[in-house]
Each structure stands twice: as structure tokens, then as C-alpha cells.
Design brief:
Length: 200
């Protein structure tokens, strides 16, 4: 029985359930720095004149990430100039998912003509700090004098498979509210996607 309990605990740790808590709405996040696909380091301090960040945990292989790729691009196109650029992060273990290796990230970003940073969270520490669980998983941050404050967690919209039939654009609505000086009305929505592949 003891061996069974130890085995279950080990499984939970390896699959990431022990890291599911992370930041909560209203928390000020800790700054981070990660390697971008251009081999340069990008950090939360790299953005000087922005009003916030749209942090999206995503990857190369996940069908949901692929379905949302164009919408992630559209978010950056629409909101970067308004002060909310996209910051995409891949935290998957490349041993579990070789397609998500840093070298393949470079290929993927070039092929997709990414205009936003695509960062590699090799240690997985950033994903654990945020409590990221899925790809894609969005964390909307607002810049303040204290640092970046978490304002929204969850999905980009309400329809992963049919972009033309989306009824609720959760991230866009939240950003628009912040830009208007309002409080975010919907602060959390369940993220739908592949699970992050944790190191064992």
C-alpha cells in the first residue's frame, strides 16, 4: 500500500499536478528571462513602453496550439501597438515531445513568421510559477508601479475548433476593458488544450 501511494505521488509530480496552483488573480508576478528563438534573451524588463503582456504558454505539436496559432498572431497584431504584446512560451519537455525542442521552435517560428517572442522555458520554472497547465494557456498581465499584476487566466476564446463561430473572445474583452480603465469582468476561464509535458 505504501508503495502504491509513493507511485501515485510520483505520477502526480511528473505530470505537473503538483504545480497547478501558481499565481492567482491580483498577484504581482516575479520577473523572468528566457531564451528567444533568435538566441537572444527576452525578459519582462524588455518591454519599456507597454501597458501589459499577453503571456501565452503554447508549443509546436499540440493540435489546439495549431488551431489557435493564427488567433495568437492576430492578438499580437491588434494589441501590441496598444501596449499589450504577446509573449509566447514553450515549456514542454523535449524528451517527451521532440517536436517541441528549441531547434524545432526556431523552424516553427520562422515558418509561421512570428512577430512576437517565442521563448523556451527549458527549466519549466516559469510554467510552474504561473501554474500553467495547458497549451495554449493565457495569462494577461497589467503593468503597474509594483510590477506586472495578473488580471486574467484561461482560454483565448470559446471555440478552439471553429474560429469563425467564436461567440466570446475572452482575452480581447479583458484587454479592451483594461485599456478603457475598467476592471476585467471575466477573470478566469478554463483553458482547453494539451497538457504541458513535464520532466520526470
Amino acid at each position: 500500500m505504501k508503495k502504491l501511494k509513493i507511485s501515485i505521488i510520483s505520477m502526480l509530480v511528473s505530470t505537473g499536478f503538483m504545480f497547478a496552483q501558481g499565481y492567482k488573480i491580483g498577484d504581482t508576478i516575479s520577473g523572468f528571462a528566457l531564451k528567444n528563438v533568435d538566441e537572444k534573451t527576452v525578459s519582462t524588463d524588455s518591454f519599456k513602453d507597454n501597458k501589459g503582456l499577453v503571456v501565452i504558454f503554447t508549443c509546436n505539436h499540440c493540435p489546439f496550439s495549431k488551431m489557435y496559432e493564427s488567433r495568437i498572431k492576430d492578438l499580437h497584431t491588434k494589441y501590441a501597438a496598444k501596449g499589450f504584446p504577446v509573449l509566447a512560451i514553450n515549456s514542454n519537455d523535449e524528451k517527451s515531445q521532440p517536436e517541441d525542442s528549441f531547434e524545432n521552435m526556431k523552424v516553427y517560428a520562422k515558418k509561421g513568421n512570428y512577430a512576437f517572442p517565442y521563448l523556451y522555458d527549458d527549466s519549466q520554472n516559469v510554467a510552474k510559477a504561473f501554474g500553467a497547465q495547458r497549451t495554449p494557456h493565457v495569462f494577461l498581465l497589467k503593468k503597474s508601479e509594483k510590477g506586472y499584476i495578473l488580471e486574467f487566466i484561461g482560454a483565448i476564446d470559446d471555440n478552439a475548433q471553429e474560429a469563425n463561430n467564436v461567440k466570446e473572445k475572452f482575452v480581447e474583452k479583458a484587454i479592451d476593458e483594461l485599456l478603457s480603465g475598467k476592471e476585467v469582468s471575466t477573470k478566469s476561464v478554463k483553458a482547453i488544450g494539451c497538457t504541458i509535458k513535464w520532466k520526470i
